[in-house]
Amino acid sequence: MKTIQGSCDVLMKAIMRDAVAAFSGGRWVVPGMAVLLLFAGCAELKVDRPGAASEADWLTEGDSGQREQVTRSALEPPLEEVWVYNANAGFGPGSPLILGKTILVGTRKGEIHAIDFETGKRKGTEGFGDVVDGTPLIEDGVLFIPVGWGRQAVYAYDLARGQTRWKRKGAPISTGLLALEDAVVGVDAEARVRKYAMDDGAILWEQALGDRVTVHATPVLTDGVIVIADDQGRIVALDPADGSTQWTKALASPVYTSIAAAEGTLFVPSTRGRFFALDAARGHIRWQVALPDTTVRFTAPAVDGSLVVVGASDGALRAFDAATGTQRWLFQDAAALTATPLLTPSAVYIGNMGHSLFAVDRQTGALEWEGELRGRVKSALAAREGYLVVLSEPRFVYLFKSSSASSDVASP
What is the rounded distance in angstroms from the CA atom of residue 303 to the CA atom of residue 251? Predict the structure, then answer.
């Protein structure tokens, strides 16, 4: 299928073509309306009724503060490609967002793209710093954006008005943000955790995790604590009210991807072939997986009350009993897996580093469907009511329709 380019791009080309045709007497003659479109509204990032989010929308990394990466809607294979969008830049490890009839994608060029869910055409674009690596989040019609490079660390952008509400300088933030009731929590490149007030960006508290520490995992909210994992293998639980430390756990195995939580258990992917399940209340190890190959790195997991599914650099997608750690099944692929899987009621979806997207049976791990992409998959997926959004390097956004979808296009 031909890649769908943004409608603004087409309009801009038409304006410039008409302007060239109108060149006369040594000066440019451009219609007034064209000037307005050229300099004002064409690329404006706005969303209709952004505060009217539904439960079906995907508004944060993993679709919740616990980063479960689960969709409760049916998403049956096979999938059909609906459209492909060119974002003109690569993506971080986080997921796209879905708000009504708009898909929002951050890029490593520092842009947020708003894409029409039905047509795949660009609705607007806005630049924020140099890199958007972590997943933004949407709360009450405001898009909160972590910036991975540049002078600003966090933006709060009003999607209805199409303008920045506030921004805060600081060290870059390359992970996703966490939403609390009236605040946003981010962890910067200097391993400092900050709680920002949603309304004006005031820093409500700040906590330093230590020297020579880097955080690659997006914060998780579970059992009344904020949990953060660092690249030294230390897991820290903080009180959301004041940032005070509630407990710490040293795993001695670096964490480079996001963690997840479900029913009082933290699921921590690590390097050195190790995967941990911790008690969220105190940090005790409930069970762990130690592979013979210590070079293996696990991806961020997808988890619900009974099953936890995690990919790995050895090309294996593994499913474990969430309570005991017993391995349920293993699906082996030839290419490495670095992206977070997506867990559905009947299947598990995951993309690999070899340009493929897979669906495997949730109960057995048997391959049910495979699709070919234009590039590798390193980012988490997002889903809504029988549709799947996939980010593929070096710059492509895909929308796939499930055989279980009720209509030709989603109807948010």
Answer: 21
Q: What is the DSSP letter of 89?
A: S
Report how far residue 365's alpha carbon sits from residue 367's, in angstroms, rounded to the nearest whole number: 6
Q: What is the pLDDT of residue 11?
A: 43
CA distance 35 to 23: 14
* Phi, psi torsion values for 172, nearest 5 degrees: -60, 150
| Residues 194, 108: Cα–Cα separation, whole Å | 23
Token pair of 31, please?
């219609």
Look at the chain and count its residues. Answer: 412
Asked whether 197 and 206 are in contact (CB, 8 A), the reply is no
Do residues 119 and 10 touch, judged by C-beta distance below 8 A? no
DSSP state of 94: S
pLDDT value, residue 407:
62
Q: What is the mean pLDDT of residues 68-74?
A: 95
CB atoms within 10 A of CB 216: 19
Q: Which phi and psi (to 5°) does residue 44 adopt?
A: -65, 130
Report the alpha-carbon distance of residue 35 to residue 33 in Å, rounded. Answer: 5
- The better pLDDT of the pair 200, 18 is held by 200
pTM to 2 decimal places: 0.89
Phi, psi of 271 (to 5 degrees): -90, -175
HSE of 305, CA atoms in CB hemisphere, 13 A: 2
R_g over Cα of the chain: 22
- Residue 192 CA to residue 179 CA, distance in Å, equals 17
Sheet holding 152-158, edge to edge: 137-139, 142-146, 152-158, 163-169
What residue spans define the domains of the chain? Answer: 1-42, 43-402
At the fourth CATH level, which superfamily is domain 43-402?
YVTN repeat-like/Quinoprotein amine dehydrogenase (2.130.10.10)
d(CA 377, CA 341): 11
**What whole-number distance in Å separates Cα of residue 153 and Cα of residue 198?**
14
Kind plus residue range of the DSSP H or E element containing 17: helix 7-21
Query: Does a cis peptide bond (omega within 30 degrees of 0) precede residue 254?
Result: no
